[in-house]
Predict the 3D structure of the following.
Amino acid sequence: MSELRPDNVAEWDPDLFAHQDTLPDSAFYAEPRKVVHIDDAAIGIVSGLYREMLPAGGAVLDLMSSWRSHLPPDVSYTRVAGLGMNADEMADNPQLTEYAVHDLNNAPKLPYSDHEFDAACCAVSVQYLRHPVEVFREVGRVLKPGAPFVITYSNRCFPTKAISLWLETNDAEHADLIALYFAAAGNWTPAERRDCRSTRAKVFRADPLYAIWAYAK
């Protein structure tokens, strides 16, 4: 991963961002999968992180959304927009106020105007992005200045749909990789990270969970 730098994105090897499964993502996600990908304790940690970082009463973009957003149930938001791959899943998500089916690997540009949202989140899905820098730059565009983009990940994934580079690196290197995405996008503050295993995860024997975030410039 050492050859990847924020200043040489055009030279990044596209094979590092390829999937083992070469079928279109729309085919893979055509059938709804109404399952969670981390255990209840880890979900509780995600919700606590969102409670801490996403402004109550704000407009939130749930990127790569599904049938559950893990937002704290006792916090109200004026808008929660889900952007995902399966309409049936998102229609069953009680926290979304709206949703749109959108393939970020086919079209990284987001279908929103500049500065629409007060925060964005992406739960255990960042490993599937084939054009992460473009997507991160777009998220920064649709967020208001100073708004956070909070990303969580664990050690689970659909391996045939995760990018090669993700499968070849470990959990600590995954944080480095996501921080690189933020830096290369160019419209974010320096990324901050948290190993959530050091808090409630150990107590409840949760799935390993990591968080990394930055603020839109």
